Amino acid sequence: MCVDLHLHSTYSDGTCTPEELVLTAARHDLRAISLTDHDTVEGICETIQLAARHNLTFISGIELNTTHRGYALHILGYGIDHADREFRNRLSRVQAGRKKRNDRILGKLQSLGISLSQAELESVSGRGQVGRPHFARILVEKGIVGSMGEAFNRYLGKGAPAWTDRFSYTTAESIDMIHRAGGVAVFAHPGQLDPTFRFLPLLIHELVERGLDGIEAYYPSYPYSTQKRLLQIANKYKLVVTGGSDYHGNNRGFSSMAGTSGNFCPPASLIMPLEERMNKNLNNLT
Range of 145's domain? Predict the structure, then answer.
């Protein structure tokens, strides 16, 4: 039986509502899921209720964009108290940085002669926060580009004309932030950052020293050799192992939810060690 601990909804950069995610997970007999929206916990309450109706184990989550020694790293937080006031207050600074970046991207696209308004962005993002995928979707709908990938390559990706950076906490600050909210900090898709493992082992060692709890060793694009190497590193440092599809709906054409197509199936055996670490971290707060 599969689990999928890396899903995104319309509350961040995904195109699926929490209800659509839960229904798909239930239809394909997933054992457990986690909603790991970018920099927001707004969809968690809704997803908890939906998952309970379908007898799905649900683990609260988030995905934070962080920086460490010039690298842009994504850190997943599992088992966080999504109502924690300090955690939400710190998230508000990240969300303010997102808004400033969006305003700059909008201005850059307009300066390139592309007609695009704030109202259009809000209509696409719905109840969620605006991200670059929403800009990309509008560019596709207007016929300016032929695909989401082309939108990022020509306009929105790093080094492209409309690219702009935004505020993020350091990885160490983000790990501490997750711990203070009672959660477990996991390095998201590390094999994507350094497929050759040229610097990844040292990087993970540095993050372990800063309190990292786990690594995402199961990911759709990993070859078996990458998965095997990450599992070895996890064993070396006694890290918890997680896995997920990083599913954003049709914002990301390369991924499907675990168990829905292909052979991607993070095993249900990942859940117990993760819950044990969650309980341990929670106990450390009391």
Answer: 101-156
